[in-house]
Amino acid sequence: MTLDATAEIAEISARPRPLSERDLGRLAVLRHEVARSRVTQTHSLMPPAPGEDLFEGVKGVPEISRADLTARHLACGLRHHGALLVRGLVATPDVERLRSLIDGIDRGMPLCPQDATGEPLPGSTPMKCSAAALQGLVEAYQNAGMAALMRDYLGEPPVLLSERLQVDRQTFGKGLTWHQDGAFFGGNVGAVNSFLALAPCGVNAAGLTVAAHRFNEVVGVETGERANLNYGSSLTDQQVREMAGPDSVVTPALEAGDAILIDEMTMHRTGRPPKTDPQPRSWAITWFFAPSRFPAQRHPLWFG
Q1: Measured CA distances, 182 to 13, 17, 267 (Å)
Q2: Any idea where the domains of the chain sit in the sequence?
């Protein structure tokens, strides 16, 4: 069945554009079917230690271009500095397409793709984006070479975390407080999250604020436990600096197509918008997991 589903994904993906709503919904269902068959509860080894730091001496978040990016650069950024900024990760045509797929529907909670009658598609999974945006993300990241990069870093062909997929435009007030996503995944699982800017952010629009420091434990949560989104609400910037270093708290300025890559151990929060004339933030969130280390009680989607 998996081989048939994989072949159907390839056949539908090769059809002339634009794909129909029916085709896009079918792809979303098939991606879950394939990914579900790949996910196991037997954990594989974590990504290997990167060895010598390729960004030694860099203060803040290290930067690299898409053309120079390798799995070792990613490992050094994440395992030595807590994050890696990739300039121009996604090409302009793909950014413009993703921006056009922002549909304005309030997806504060993940929703399943719907059929023509408005009912959830059987076999689909909840997302914070449309089925069209899911396909747009898959194609944009495939064009950016993320399939090979994630396979090399994770040690397995990646799957996506359905509930966290997001393509949106928002004007933030407070936003999310300091947190590590490992608190929600049960600790260190060796995943990668791409925060992709679809328009400039970090200056006139809220960006992503990160602690440029490697945390090896989830702060404030016992190993194996899971937290809610309020667990880090008491942490202040000063407290994070005391843990991570005086120059660690940074909000990189991003252009459209730039991405900050973090993992579940990265301490981060929503960037604060300027006090005068804040602009909406257009962005995409995509979590990549090794199938053997996918968190329980979540829904995977096949990236291939």
Answers
A1: 33, 38, 10
A2: 2-302
* Long-range CB contacts (within 8 A, 24+) of 109-113: 110/162, 110/163, 113/24, 113/25, 113/28, 113/29
Give the span between the Cα atoms of 103 and 262, in whole angstroms. 26
Q: Which two structure tokens, joined as six digits, stand for 50?
A: 């990167």
CB 246 within 8 A of CB 204: no
Q: Do 304 and 159 meet the contact criterion of CB atoms below 8 Å apart?
A: no
Q: Which two tokens stand for residue 193?
A: 């999250």
- What would the CATH number be for the domain defined by 2-302? 2.60.120.620
128 contacts 88 by C-beta, under 8 angstroms: no
Per-residue b/e over 83-98, b at no fewer than 16 CB within 10 Å?
A: bbbbbbbbeeebbebb
170-182 pLDDT, tens digit each: 876 667 889 999 9
pTM for this one?
A: 0.94
Determine phi and psi for 215, rounding to 5 degrees. -95, 130
Amino acid at 288: F
SS (H, E, C) 260-304: EEECCCCCEEECCCCCCCCECEEEEEEEEECHHHCCCCCCEEECC
Report how far residue 196's alpha carbon sits from residue 226's, in angstroms, rounded to the nearest whole number: 26
69: phi then psi, degrees, rounded to nearest 5? -75, 130
Question: In the chain, which stretches have pLDDT less than 70?
Answer: 1, 41, 172-174, 221-233
- Asked whether 245 and 162 are in contact (CB, 8 A), the reply is no
The pLDDT score that the predictor gives to residue 159 is 98
- Tens of pLDDT, residues 92-135: 999 999 999 998 777 778 889 988 888 999 999 999 999 999 99
Q: Which residues pair with 170 in a beta bridge?
A: 281
pLDDT at 220: 75
